[in-house]
Specification:
The complex is a heterodimer of chains A (about 650) and B (about 200). Chain A has 30 helices and ten strands. With about 650 residues, chain A is an alpha+beta fold. In chain A, helix 22 packs across helix 23. The radius of gyration of chain B is 16 Å and the shape is globular. Chain B has one domain: Rossmann fold. Chain B is α/β, with parallel strands linked by helices and about 200 residues long. Classes of the chains: A alpha+beta (about 650), B alpha/beta (about 200). Bound molecules: guanosine-5'-triphosphate (GTP) and magnesium ion (MG). Chain A: Acts as a GTPase activating protein for RAB7A. Does not act on RAB4, RAB5 or RAB6.
Chain lengths: ~650, ~200
């Protein structure tokens, strides 16, 4: 079961202190009240609340955060200031589009699952708002403070409890019962999107229009739905009502709604810049050769279309032809030497990463090159320094390993956590890549080495522990590195980046799935709209891809090739997300044409395993990444795994905090 | 949810249970007649389908096989929502897997479809010498909770087809006139014409 002991906020000193200040913020907000529609009251307002679309401080977008009470409902908005041009790099691309992407239009707090508060040792406090759908908004940084008041104000209007798992997570609309909570948090992406649509326009106008918007939705389903929807609306802020029934009601409605209005919705969003169908090509796209004259290389599967499939706004398959550079043969030993100076330093790490990005490395070199890519060795280190580091790390590893090796059976009897962990690991190592020669056969010693490394890691990073999927990451590392301790340190380095994939609250996965949804929205809005209608915006069908970086989707050798390519972080540290987009786009016609629903989609995606052509997908992903440019990177909130440590103290502390 | 088209029934079935209990192995045995000594762990979820003939009708199972580790628990409702049947699998050689199975039963009783057909499978029955969960204990529990119980072995194939066959027989044949809110009908083209043919 999920650990869900929840306790009330009032035990929190911060909270108690902020209770006293609460009234001030409301008074302060009085000026804002006038501009709000009739019947709506601003109960909280904070200026200079900003998002950081990229790691560059200069690209932050500042805005005003408000909590607005209307009737029994509380809404959250964040509107970026107009005419911000803090950053010259962005000026030619139109800030307004970018700002629009992040605007939080009146969002009912009933759609919020939790709010996570971060307090980095250096820098500003920020919050992450996680929706019931599992999606999350990018972090909101409070330049002028006010997080406590923000939480206090919410607490005054809707149920807010602190999670026992994490003192910085505040759960909104908690139903006490963990199962109801998961039900509501995971099953209802469609509800969120419908609600968001209907409230998009609301508070800008009058409160009657809010109701109008709501009944528009219900009118799609005039037979059975409108009644219950209205009922549900009235109930939605009454925590005493049986929420699980309400949740189920909503769910059936939305499913039906989505099914019946599939075709209607396709054209609907064109007026909304947030859902714009237009793909914004970078300005240099003018210099592209005439795409029409290219021979058609469309190798996409032709599917009998059962419904008209909206055209891909990017003419994707042609794009790859222009942008994605041809792949190269893997880097050889001879080439590798040319990147090193006489003492063994990598002279130009950018060049090296670029080279590896375009072709990978020959297998024999992996043992030498991977530790650089993973950040185990500094590119500037010399042969001698690395030799020294190796000896230190060998000892360090042995020390950590002794921590569990010295646990006697007597002690183990009294150490449940240890026994549990060991049990999980034992179950998994015996079924990790056993068909692959390195791990096959009875009593294969390499299987024991996997076990020892994983158990040692679970002591090294006791908080994270062991989680299914980790053995998939370790297996190729051990195969390549051969030495136990080197495999361990590479694994530890890799998990610095992908560890959040295994967070108990799934926050790392949510962050990536959210970014993925933004990237699909940006690069193929008809496909995005399709997923939205099918209730698939949580993108859980891509879960396995992201969790273990395509390890189960390809043959062993291909996985190693893809990983080294991804680890270069060459065009983007989030290239894996563009790989996801590339695969989805490749099959978009089939997905939409066959009207796949969530179940069918997940099955389809799982069955793509073994069918993904690595080189062409990486090429497509590169093309997408280049075309999306900064707009694409701006879709990915800072701290989304696998984030690189950043030199700048302020930013890096925030990212570290994020990893918690 | 189960839907009927002429004599054909589509039924969504979900497998739940502790990591390593043998969920994937049971499905694989049922669907492909195979057993892999080193069946890999399930990441996220996997989907299979298999059709069974029961008397004069066929039942097409759409099977969701989930990941067992506790940490992925929060994803499970996505897969059991709207399911017509569930097999809760434990491993007769570990007590923890049996406790875990009970928790799943509780969760389904609370959150699942109220008409769901639930089966409890005590898997790895071939490992008699390592048994820790007695069949009687499990049977009593199952009876008290309205499940039916079988000990299975994905390895020897013991009771694997049987458990699916039993479920197929127990599935409600007649489509309830109105769907309880929140259930998703497996709505595929082809079985649009629905007759409420009733058997048993
Ligand atoms: N002896 C024996 N071994 C079995 C049986 N069923 C499964 N196993 C073994 O138990 C291990 C785990 O089986 P899986 O089918 O992967 O278990 P699972 O429940 O799907 O596990 P997760 O996907 O991790 O949740 C594998 O090594 C199987 O070979 C059985 O009936 N008898
Ligand atoms: Mg499995």
């Amino acid at each position: 079961m999920i650990e869900t002991e929840l306790h009330d906020l009032s035990d929190d000193a911060d909270y108690a202190a902020s209770q006293q200040q609460g009234s001030q913020s409301i008074t302060r907000s009085d000026s804002g009240r006038r501009s709000e529609p009739e019947g709506a009251e601003v109960v909280y307002m904070k200026d200079n609340v900003s998002i950081h679309p990229t790691q560059y401080m200069s690209e932050r977008i500042s805005g005003r955060l408000k909590l607005i009470k209307q009737g029994d409902s509380l809404f959250l908005t964040w509107i970026p200031y107009k005419g911000q041009n803090t950053n010259t790099r962005l000026s030619e691309r139109g800030d307004s589009d970018r700002n629009n992407l992040y605007t939080i239009r009146p969002l009912p707090l009933t759609d919020v699952r939790s709010i996570r508060r971060h307090t980095p040792p250096l820098g500003w406090q920020y919050i992450i708002v996680v929706l019931a759908s599992g999606l999350a908004f990018p972090p909101l940084y409070f330049y002028n403070g006010g997080v406590k008041e923000f939480l206090t104000t919410i607490k005054q209007h809707v149920s807010l409890v602190r999670s026992a798992d994490d003192a910085n997570v505040f759960i909104v609309n908690d139903f006490q019962d963990p199962l109801q909570k998961t039900l509501s948090s995971l099953e209802l992406p469609g509800v969120v999107s419908v609600a968001a649509q209907s409230t998009n326009a609301s508070l800008v106008a009058s409160s009657s229009q809010v109701n109008q918007g709501r009944s528009d939705v219900s009118s799609y389903d005039s037979n059975t739905g409108s009644q219950s929807l209205r009922r549900q609306k009235n109930k939605s802020n009454d925590p005493t009502k049986d929420l699980s029934i309400q949740v189920l009601e909503k769910f059936s409605l939305v499913t039906k709604f989505a099914r019946e209005t599939t075709s209607q919705l396709f054209g609907e969003n064109s007026g909304d810049p947030f859902l714009s169908n237009e793909w914004k090509r970078p300005s240099h796209s003018q210099s592209l050769p005439d795409l029409q004259s290219q021979p058609s290389t469309n190798d996409l599967e032709e599917v009998p279309c059962e419904v008209p499939v909206p055209a891909d706004p990017m003419e994707f398959e042609k794009l790859a032809l222009v942008w994605g550079k041809p792949r190269q043969p893997p880097m050889t030993k001879e080439e590798w030497i040319t990147f090193l100076d006489s003492e063994g330093r990598v002279v130009d790490s950018n060049d090296l990463r670029k080279r590896i990005f375009y072709g990978g490395v020959v297998h024999e070199l992996r043992k030498e090159v991977w530790p650089f890519l993973l950040g185990c060795y500094d590119y500037n280190s010399t042969y001698a320094e690395r030799e020294y580091l190796r000896s230190v790390r060998k000892q360090d590893y042995e020390i950590i390993k002794l921590q569990w090796q010295s646990i006697s059976p007597e002690q183990a009897k009294r150490f449940t956590k240890f026994r549990e962990r060991k049990g999980l690991i034992e179950k998994d190592v015996v079924r990790t890549d056993r068909a692959f020669s390195f791990y096959d056969g009875d009593d294969n010693p390499n299987v024991n080495v996997l076990h020892d490394i994983l158990l040692t890691y679970s002591f090294y990073n006791f908080d994270l522990g062991y989680c299914q999927g980790m053995s998939d990451f370790l297996s190729p590392l051990l195969f390549v590195m051969e030495d136990e301790f080197e495999a361990f340190w590479c694994f530890a380095a890799l998990l610095e980046r992908v560890g959040p994939n295994f967070n108990r609250d799934q926050s790392g996965m949510h962050a990536q799935l959210f970014a993925l949804s933004k990237l699909v929205e940006l690069s193929d809005s008809p496909l995005h709209n399709y997923f939205k209608q099918q209730d698939c915006l949580n993108y859980f069908f891509c879960f396995r891809w992201i969790l273990i970086q395509f390890k189960r989707e390809m043959r062993y050798e291909e996985t190693m090739r893809l990983w080294e390519v991804l680890w270069t972080h060459y065009p983007s540290e989030h290239l894996h997300l563009y790989v996801c987009v590339a695969i989805l786009k490749r099959y978009r016609n089939k997905i939409i044409g066959e009207q796949m629903d969530f179940d069918t989609l997940l099955k389809f995606i799982n069955e793509l395993s073994g069918q993904i052509d690595l080189d062409s997908i990486v090429r497509d992903a590169e093309a997408l990444c280049i075309c999306a440019g900064e707009t694409g990177e701006a879709c990915i909130p800072p701290g989304t795994p696998p984030s690189l440590p950043i030199e700048n103290g302020l930013v890096s502390s925030q990212l570290e905090d994020e990893v918690l | 949810m189960a839907t009927i088209g002429h004599n054909n029934l589509n039924a969504k079935l979900v497998l739940l249970g502790d990591m390593g209990a043998g969920k994937s192995s049971v499905v694989l045995r049922f669907v492909k007649g195979q057993f892999l000594e080193f069946q890999e762990s399930t990441i996220g979820a996997a989907f299979f389908s298999q059709t069974l003939a029961v008397n004069d009708a066929t039942v097409k199972f759409e099977i969701w096989d989930t990941a067992g580790q506790e940490r992925y628990h929060s994803l499970a409702p996505m897969y059991y929502r709207g399911a017509a049947a569930a097999i809760i699998v434990y491993d007769i050689t570990t007590q923890e897997s049996f406790s875990r199975a009970k928790k799943w039963v509780q969760e389904l009783q609370k959150q699942g479809n109220p008409n769901m057909v639930m089966a409890l499978a005590g898997n790895k029955a071939d490992l008699e010498e390592k048994r820790v969960v007695l069949a009687e204990e499990a049977r009593t529990y199952a009876e008290e909770n309205g499940l039916f119980f079988m000990e299975t072995s994905a390895k020897t194939a013991k009771n694997v087809n049987e458990i699916f066959y039993e479920i197929a027989k127990k599935l409600p044949r007649a489509q309830a006139p109105q769907n309880p809110a929140g259930m998703v009908l497996v709505d595929r083209q082809g079985d649009a014409a629905r007759a409420s043919s009733c058997c048993s």
